[in-house]
Structure formats: C-alpha cells, structure tokens
Amino acid sequence: MPKISAPTVAEHRANRHAALVRAGEEVLREEGLAGVTPGRVVARAGLSRSSFYDYFATKDDLLIAIARHAIEQWNSEIDAALAEVDAGLPALRQFIESTMRMTADGRHDIANAVREANLSPSSMDDLMAFHDKLIGPVVSILSELGVPSPQVKAMYVQGLLNSGVQMVSHGCDPNGVADEVFQIVTKGVVQEDS
C-alpha cells in the first residue's frame, strides 16, 4: 500500500487534490492557459506525473476544479463583506463595491482565463452552473428590497456587474465604476419597481 501523508486516505486524497488545484492556479496565473499541462502542474505540486490522472481525467477537469475553487473563494469573501453591513441598499452597495475591488485585485483573472479555454460543452455547462451561483446574493438583496421578479432583475444587475468588471479589468477605477453601477441599478432596477 502506498504511503499516505495524512491520518486517513480520504484526507490524503483531499490534500493532493487541493495541491494540484493550487498548483494549476499558480501555473495559470504565471504562464496562461497554454502553460497548464499535467506535467507542469504535477511538477509545481511536487507530485509524480501519474498523480495527475489519479485526480483528473482531463485538463478540462482540472480547469473546472480551478474555476470552482476560485468561485468558492469569491463567494466566501462576498458573504463576509455582506455580513458587515445592513440588509437592503447597504448590502447592494457592498456587493457591487466588493465585486469591483476583488476584480481590481486580480481575483477575476482565473475566471477569465478558464472562460477562454476550449472546454467541452459539458465542462462549459459545469462552469456556468458554478458561476451562476455568484448572483444568489443579488437575488436575496432584491427580494429584501421588495423588487418584483428578483431573479429576472438580478440578471440585469449581473449584466451591469459584468460591464463593470470589464471596465475595471481594463484599468478603470474600481471605486468610480462601483459608484456608477450602483447608481444605474438603484435608479433603473430598484427605484422603478419599488
């Protein structure tokens, strides 16, 4: 039986999986999508080449795991930021500001890189399902504000957020973009329907 580096086999496997995801993310940030190869990833993680295939059947599977990890981290940070403010408009402002600040900090880069990968249709569907969870807090905020059809309106807000993310990604001031997105959302989505 192979030597394990954790108290249980399950923990050992979870640790190795996490190490490969972290290594894949590092390679993706440093070398771009073309640099993410099984060989580079396992070398960065300090594992044998065959280890890659113990955890991921394809490069797509690794990219989806990297994206999922990035989205989970993003969600955790958004949840923590929202826990510090009152519900309603303060929460909406915080959500928008946090989204733009995190984009400026480079945390949206992973999602952009993975989105540009030539993923299989099923892998792209998996990625979009993870990404769609990011709009959940907006649906809740709009519901708290009494906005009719909050799920539909949240999709419009998502469109504005995506535009803001693109602007920040291209060098626009995150605070200015957040202010503008908040103004458009509150005047066009919240105020009209409330």
From TrEMBL:
Domain spans labelled HTH tetR-type: 14-74
Keyword DNA-binding tagged: yes
Xref: Pfam families: TetR_N (PF00440)
Keywords in alphabetical order: DNA-binding
InterPro entries in alphabetical order: Homeodomain-like_sf (IPR009057), HTH-type_TetR-like_transc_reg (IPR050109), HTH_TetR (IPR001647)
Molecular function per GO: DNA-binding transcription factor activity; transcription cis-regulatory region binding
DNA-binding region extent: 37-56
Domain of life: Bacteria
Name of the protein in question: Transcriptional regulator, TetR family
Organism the protein comes from: Jonesia denitrificans (strain ATCC 14870 / DSM 20603 / BCRC 15368 / CIP 55.134 / JCM 11481 / NBRC 15587 / NCTC 10816 / Prevot 55134)
